[in-house]
Amino acid sequence: MGDRESSNHSDMTDFILVGFRVRSELHILLFLLFLLVYTMILLGNLGMMAIIMTDPRLNTPMYFFLGNLSFIDLFYSSVIAPKAMSNFWTESKSISFAGCVAQIFLFALFIVAEGFLLAAMAYDRFIAICNPLLYSVHMSTRLCSQLVAGSYFCGCISSVLQTSMTFTLSFCASRAVDHFYCDSRPLQRLSCSDLFMHKIVSFSLSGIIILPTVIVIIVSYVYIVSTVLKIRSTEGRKKAFSTCSSHLGVVSVLYGAVFFMYLTPNRFPELSKMASLCYSLVTPMLNPLIYSLRNKDVKDALSKLLEKKKIQSFIFPLL
After folding, report:
1. Residue 132: which region, alpha, beta or left (left: phi > 0; alpha: psi -120 to 50)?
2. Which residues cross the membrane (predicted)?
3. Which pick of 16, 82, 262, 265 has the fewest CB atoms within 10 Å?
């Protein structure tokens, strides 16, 4: 039995991404929907990064974190969307073994890094509102760089562990992954191995990742709300809350989708796909919109950039 499992694992050269179980006539509609969402992700996140890098007024810790958030959103959606879109046009829907490993590794790296980055952004808002006079001292350039580097480092460690655990499993004859990208949960369903210890380690790893970030976010906002409620002026309270509302919106969308996916039983794979779609593509699309529509500094910087481009396009033809 062990020899057969090892053989099946060693012979596995590619997988089939089943995708969404819909009629073939709907594939064109789904392709156009994915294309629209991915185009908005590219424009939104590249635009946000360009605004932050070109406007000196946005050279602050909050926008340094926001620029990295856009970078992460851009890359982990790019790990998923192009392959998912190409599969709407192909009959085989195959992905190589190496490609599957790369998808799991890169997606896990960026999604975990985003969780830690959101916790760092919550801490930044806590310092800005609860200790504004010491903000520049606490949130130094060095600390901000360390927090971002730490987020990527935690993402990398988690990704290495998750990927190595997944691909040390022995896979049965089936190559059909019931998902639109390679993910550890649908791959577990193809395994001939005993998954008890694997699930224990995966659950522990998820707890180590999720609990600290959620605790930091919750504790930060408990202090923030307590401080804001002590502000006497209505205008002051409104301004303080407005600086946090965008971050809270992003946190709610991401963690809501993640918790929904992991709480969905394995017997409902289509629900898991919808939840995965939310945090792999919808969240990266919404994040720039949430920050740009609810942030006066970003809107002012965008208006200034567009005005500059308009002036340049008017002057250059005359030269």
Report:
1. alpha
2. 28-51, 63-81, 101-123, 203-229, 241-262
3. 265
Prediction pTM value: 0.87
pLDDT at site 84: 92
Q: Are 295 and 246 in contact (CB under 8 A)?
A: yes
- Classify residue 312 as exposed, middle or buried by CB count within 10 Å of its CB (0-12, 13-18, 19+): exposed
Rounded to 5°, the CA angle 179-180-183 comes to 60
Rounded (5°) CA angle 97-100-105:
125
Beta bridge partners of 191: 171
Phi, psi of 230 (to 5 degrees): -85, -10
**3-state DSSP call for residue 277?**
helix
Structure tokens at 55: 């406007």
Q: Which residue has the tokens 């707890």?
A: 207
The amino acid sitting at 178 is D
CB atoms within 10 A of CB 194: 10
How many other CB atoms are found less than 10 A from the CB of residue 206?
Answer: 15
pLDDT in tens, 27-50: 889 999 999 999 999 999 998 898
- DSSP annotation string for 58-97: G-SHHHHHHHHHHHHHHHHHHHHHHHHHHHTS-SS-EEEH
